[in-house]
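User: Please fill in residues for this 118-position structure.
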């Protein structure tokens, strides 16, 4: 009987480990998605600056909302671990700072006179 109990305990430990591995992969996937959305925001900002075409700004505004949602979701996913939560809050803050910087670049561009004869 002791080996049967040990086997049951081992199976339980394996299931717990699998659960945490799956959770880790989900967090990593969420981080990758957040990074992609931030890169998309940068790309749309550059498209607007390069062309002056405001159609680049509409998807940027949608992506901005997605950054906030993803950052909040990721922070919630790691809420069980204080150190991970702090790191994820820092990532969310960085992403929001990036959006603020994009806004400043766009604002500066819109305030700066351009020589249209170029």
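Assistant: Residues filled in for all 118 positions:
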């Amino acid at each position: 009987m002791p080996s049967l109990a040990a086997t049951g305990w081992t199976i339980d430990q394996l299931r717990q480990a699998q659960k945490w591995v799956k959770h880790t992969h989900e967090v990593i996937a969420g981080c990758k998605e957040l990074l992609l959305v931030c890169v998309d925001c940068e790309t749309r900002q550059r498209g607007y600056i390069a062309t002056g075409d405001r159609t680049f700004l509409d998807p940027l505004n949608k992506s901005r909302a997605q950054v906030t949602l993803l950052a909040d979701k990721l922070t919630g996913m790691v809420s069980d671990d204080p150190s991970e939560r702090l790191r994820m809050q820092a990532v969310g803050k960085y992403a929001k700072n990036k959006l603020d910087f994009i806004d400043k670049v766009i604002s500066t561009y819109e305030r700066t006179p351009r020589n249209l004869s170029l």
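For context: The chain has one domain: 24-111.
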